[in-house]
Amino acid sequence: MITPLDRLLDLLATRSARRGTFTLASGRQSNLYIDARLTTMSPEGLATIGPLALSAIAAAGWHPDAVGGLTLGADPVSYAIAYASALAGMPVRAFTVRKEAKTHGTGKRIEGPFREGDRVVVIEDVITTGGSAINAIAAVRAAGATVLGVLAVVDREEGGGEAIAAAGVTAIALARASAIVARMPAAAP
Q1: Phi, psi (rounded to 5 degrees) for 159
Q2: For residue 187, what pLDDT is reported?
Q3: 16 inside domain
Q4: Number of domains in the chain
Q5: Is residue 34 part of a domain?
Q6: pTM, full prediction
Q7: Which residues make beta-bridge pairs with 95?
Q8: How far, rounded to the nearest angstrom, does the alpha carbon of residue 80 sit from its chain's CA centroid?
Q9: What sign does the CA torsion over 178, 179, 182, 184 have?
Q10: Is the CB of residue 134 less than 8 Å from the CB of residue 70?
């Protein structure tokens, strides 16, 4: 029987991971690119990630009021978790952190049903350096929330989890790059 984690790893390996030469958002060069959105925005990915992430949050002992992170990578993951939480009868709200505050309207940086005083789990699609998660942590703390932890779909295992820990927050991941690479089809000769 295939587990939800096996399903996620297979989706990431076949849809999201690519070998080659890439410049990452961090500016680093890599021979592996993981575009998690190709999985997180698919019906199968959303259906798998929501319950799997909800279980990981519970296993970490976190009891959030809301989940969210820096747009765009965190958005589908947060929404999948919120939907799965409603189906499980323990609703958790989702929110989005803008890269910068709007210059019009209410000028909000955090969108959605986020509330001051919320206990939140910051969501990330892929952790490399941890910079996006640390940015989101700062934004939600500035808005009056308590950060319980960071949940990523993928940890590239390049020091991002440690950087987040150095900022005083525990980071967990549903998948690690090494497990995804192990499931990737062999490179053509």
Answers
A1: 100, -5
A2: 63
A3: no
A4: 1
A5: no
A6: 0.94
A7: 68
A8: 11
A9: negative
A10: no
